[in-house]
Design a protein that fits this description.
- It is a single chain.
- The two termini are 20 Å apart.
- The chain contains four helices and no strands.
- It is elongated and about 60 Å long.
- It has one domain.
- By secondary structure, it is mostly helical.
């Protein structure tokens, strides 16, 4: 579990920490520019802000609580029960995976028709491309967590109960 958790933190969490601020800045630039559908830009920004906050909390819970607790349990160490119900939080994380994917799909749909002028075509294409890359990486990330890491974590955490 430890190696997989480290891989996810380095590869996928690192990607999210780099890409989310970059996409936020690009979205801010687009939203403040002439030649875009302002209603679509505002909706994308609203969805993006919510997704960004959820992802940041999700990463924090994994890196500071779930992964360290599970590493210790896997090593046979005694672990005090955390301040939250980690089994419930783990199940909530899996729901968040699906919610993030649906939100990214919606933002991509909106971004596809965002440019209302030729001058904004390039920044809007960059946003769409960034959202596509984010969603593609998230799919791989989620697959690793949902099929390997989370089932193992659930098994380890059930030993705490």
């Amino acid at each position: 579990m430890g190696q997989m958790a480290e891989h996810i933190i380095y590869r996928h969490h690192g990607f999210l920490r780099r890409e989310l601020p970059r996409l936020f800045q690009l979205l801010e630039h687009i939203r403040q520019s002439q030649g875009v559908d302002l209603e679509k830009a505002a909706e994308i920004e609203k969805i993006f802000q919510a997704v960004k906050q959820k992802i940041e909390k999700h990463l924090c819970d994994e890196e500071e609580l779930l992964f360290p607790i599970c590493r210790r349990l896997e090593a046979g160490e005694k672990v005090e029960s955390p301040h939250m119900d980690m089994i419930a939080r783990l199940q909530e994380m899996e729901v968040e995976h699906g919610n993030a994917d649906r939100a990214l799909t919606r933002m991509r749909e909106l971004a596809g028709g965002l440019a209302a002028s030729p001058e904004m075509a390039h920044p809007c294409r960059d946003l769409l491309s960034g959202l596509e890359a984010l969603q593609a990486d998230l799919k791989v990330h989620v697959e690793k967590e949902n099929t390997f890491l989370h089932p193992l974590a659930l098994e380890l955490l059930q030993g705490l109960v």
